[in-house]
Amino acid sequence: VQERIYNFSPGPATMPLSVLQQVQDELLCLPGSGCSIMEMSHRDKTFLDILHAAENGIRSLLNVSDDYAVLFLQGGARLQFSMIAANLLRGQSGKAQYLVTGSWGKSAVAEAVKEGPTEVIWDGKADNYNNIPSDADYSVDPSAAYLYYCSNETIQGVQFQTEPTAPQGVPLICDSSSDFLCRPVDIEKYGILYACAQKNAGPAGVTVTVIRKDLLERSQAELPGYLNYKNHADNDSEWNTPPTFAIYVLGKVLNWLRDDIGGLQAMQDVNREKAALLYDLIDQYPEFYIGHAAPGCRSLMNVTYKLPSDELQSAFLTQAAKHNLGSLKGHRSVGGIRASIYNAMPREGVAALADFMKDFVAQNG
Ligand code: PMP
Hints:
Pyridoxal 5'-phosphate binds at residues 77-78, 104, 154, 175, 198, 240-241. This protein has helices spanning 17-26, 45-62, 76-88, 103-112, 229-234, 244-261, 264-284, 310-322, 347-364; strands spanning 6-7, 68-73, 96-100, 118-123, 146-150, 152-153, 158-159, 172-175, 192-196, 207-212, 290-291, 302-306, 325-326, 337-340. By secondary structure, the protein is an alpha/beta fold.
């Protein structure tokens, strides 16, 4: 444990230490079951209880009603790019409409066009994806098959502060992979909200898709079985073997959020405090720490900035590593620094980075 650094990886990302410790304690033998979670049938009652507890954990944290199914899927967030369009666009008369605020929205569009007519109704490219539109900046076709957006662009570090408004009858679809469970969400506004687990909710291997049940009627029987949401919903995520270990760990993260943190409002308060520690420095030294996101669009999860030169940037990364501050290099497509400060990053970790940044600018600014 002593060797653990503050890990700012964008995902898979830092986990709550107490969760890792519980997993360690139970790894060889899940109490009462005679074997490891990894050695047990997915139809075993012990696992079914774990699956249902994880589902209930999501339902209670996000206030998800019975009008929605909660699915535990594989294939990561990227498979959702395809599944959403395959299930909700194929066979529909309306177009899919997309807001593109960064790299992941763009990748989602690239998959949707394979399934049917797809239109980008807002694209932040001209400003190098440093901002987020408001409702007045685009118009959604009232007969669209759905309106899609990514609530937090992990690479650029821009986040919607509130969800876009979809016209009555147009399902709103959200990729919440990198800000899942970071704040309260009004789930009733969504047709689908989904997230891969490996940033804010657990290990890689499971993706949570919350889908309004009436949308399941759009899924066509001709779809490959795994790609059909209805199969997963009708079989309570046991159409095939779900990623049992990942779901088990996810369940523990949900308990941590509920019991140790106190739910999503408390989590948002902590996340705001943590993010402010870094954004305050970006505001204080705007010519040295050059923030990427426009101030009203800053992400609570991925703080992106550049230093005045490549030399300073590499010195920053090398010295940060010596202070046990790791994985701060920005995505290869945009460069710079990216501090991913997901739910499980402790306040002390962000404070340590802020202290390091103060010292670094004092010495090099
Ligand atoms: N969407 C967002 C917002 C992401 O951050 C990522 C992963 N970095 C993905 C989608 C793709 O996720 P996966 O690798 O699980 O397919």
